[in-house]
Amino acid sequence: MSTLEIRDLHVSVDTEQGSKEILKGVNLTVKSGETHAIMGPNGSGKSTLAYSIAGHPKYTVTSGTVTLDGEDVLSMSVDERARAGLFLAMQYPVEVPGVTVSNFLRTAKTAVDGEAPKLRTWVKDVKKSMNDLRMDEGFAERGVNEGFSGGEKKRHEILQLELLKPKIAILDETDSGLDVDALRVVSEGVNRAKDETDAGVLLITHYTRILRYIKPDFVHVFVDGKVAEEGGPELAERLEAEGYDRFLPAKAKA
Ligand code: ADP
Ligand code: MG
Ligand code: MG
To answer: Where does the ABC transporter domain lie (predicted)?
Structure first.
């Protein structure tokens, strides 16, 4: 049983105009087996939360805490965070030219586990996960993210999720740019990972459609850098019907 605990988190980003506070006191607790959807309008700070937990150097935590099973995540290096059991699927995954998917996955697995996976089971596991995600076998020999389509990037993220078996997974806009078939395949992958490892999932999404396939236990609405409302799955249904209008500042009268 694992718990990711975010307490009164304030984060600033460095811009050309100086430092700007983006997260203004975020509180959130994610436990093993729970799926939390973070929803909210564009620019509300959802990705900033993901990057901050992942340790992206552009984001400075000015106050508050993030702990995983009581351990201070914010004092860990990016590698240590992964070893501690955090997984972050980047919204815009980077290219790693010259490194094949196959080598990348094995290196990542070795880094996270602290030992190389046994070759025979590893090859079998990779094949099974790729097959489940309807990925062509030749995909393993391609360069990481080199010329990947949007759908291939997302499948690659979920492939990592399935193989690395994190305690807590943070998925940012996993649904963006996917057609309905790809969305279903990717969602099934997330659900398999949840079932197999009892991972806690923080699912960040602007749109409600992925929540038809991945059922959230809790929904948190982000507005202007903090959680403005929380509820169960019914809150997502309400957002689907009403959008975010009631959370946004009233427009100036003409
Ligand atoms: P969301 O993911 O909810 O759309 P983001 O976390 O991407 O929101 O952005 C929140 C706010 O922070 C936006 O106003 C955005 O312009 C700003 N911001 C985020 N990252 C940076 C950055 N690296 N440089 C400057 N501004 C940023
Ligand atoms: Mg909660
Ligand atoms: Mg975002």
So the answer is: 4-249
